[in-house]
């Protein structure tokens, strides 16, 4: 793209006399998606979310909440509150993506500067690749379990290689190839895959729920268990559960513009997220509780792990159908929630060398370097690392919201997001307002992990990070406000 002044096919018009896009900030994958190419309807947006919330972590979420002492109804209420709050954050943070057609890694330049933006972009990319590796390995375990049941000889492939048996490597290779096939034709193949994957998982979930209702002759024993908590302790535990549920998707609240930039209207974006996020998540969690209730009556103890449940049923056809569903569900969440944002982040780092397809394949390779099979031996370490990173991304969400709604008043000079000389350049490309707000918000979000006396704050790190990050950014931006560019430049920028 070196030397390019504009690319009308991608909706970018710099106007007469404006600076050309810098090749270090621009290529076709980072360019605004023009209105003619924004063809995702609310159905596409909702099925993408369906595919993401239907995963093993979400299935087992109710188990974690009930382990805290909440009963089934309280757990469902906690899930509902968490996903409604997430929906609100993602709705507002998705709007600039829908309005201007640009991804997160470009939007963040408004508040951090074109060079300072690399800080949150690299942080989000690291987290996405880490989650991809963890989810990818979990999916490969489902492949291993299915093949081990269908083909007895599979269980004998136990030669250890770099800490993992041969059959594990073969399962990982199969799962990685499936990922590569889905992302090989870009975002539109991802959209089409999610259009099938999301509803398919719902259908299988309905079948599992019907089985559970039949075995338990109703909602089941889990719904009969009373809460073990009362009074203030119950409310505090409920709040901790809500925050924990939000933590699963807090990182995606940052880069929701990566998806919303393809949606054809604000109405489609809102309806799609409403159907796909809070509504589907609550229904899916209820399905998991009912199905697990049936396992108490059938096996004498609850089985929350869907792979373990499939193995316990000893029905090859059920194992095949259920295993395939788990694999598809894991593929679905991994592609949309992890590979896609990580690919955009890598493209942002090297726009002259990478496009979305090559960056997606690079994510697959980097994911193996994380050696997730070794991390699984100490699962607590995974969530400590990812929890800390997620806590740092809460302030980024708050800064993005404050920048777009309070500072920019929902107006961006899009063309100037692609140059080092525009109104967003700040100090040589570094906007210290955003960086300082990020440091303050990150410190507040993670201080509970450092000071034992404040450990309780760690349960609310996402909320603290958003509030402190947004407040600090809005305050500093007001105190350090620069003169507004003249009207002609603003109109030209907004028109792009």
How would you describe this structure to a colleague?
- Helices cover 68% and strands 1% of the residues.
- It has 496 residues and is mainly alpha-helical.
- The chain has a domain at 39-380: Hydantoin permease (Orthogonal Bundle), CATH 1.10.4160.
- Strands 1-2 form a two-stranded antiparallel ribbon.
- β1 and β2 form a beta hairpin.
- It is globular, with a radius of gyration of 23 Å.
- It starts with 41 loop residues before the first helix and ends with a helix.
- Mean pLDDT is 85; it is low at 1-11 and 486-496.
- One of its GO terms (molecular function) is nucleobase transmembrane transporter activity.
- One of its GO terms (cellular component) is plasma membrane.
- This is NCS1 family nucleobase:cation symporter-1.
- Keywords: Membrane, Transmembrane, Transmembrane helix.
Topology:
Layout: H1 42-53, H2 56-67, H3 72-100, H4 104-107, H5 109-112, H6 118-150, E1 160-161, E2 164-165, H7 166-183, H8 187-216, H9 231-254, H10 257-260, H11 266-299, H12 306-313, H13 316-349, H14 356-369, H15 372-375, H16 379-407, H17 432-446, H18 461-479, H19 487-495
Antiparallel strand pairs: 1-2
Helix pairs in contact: 1-8, 1-11, 1-13, 2-9, 2-11, 3-9, 3-11, 3-16, 6-7, 6-13, 6-14, 6-16, 7-13, 7-14, 8-11, 8-13, 9-16, 12-13, 13-14, 16-17, 16-18, 17-18
Membrane topology: Multi-pass membrane protein
Protein name: NCS1 family nucleobase:cation symporter-1
Subcellular location: Membrane
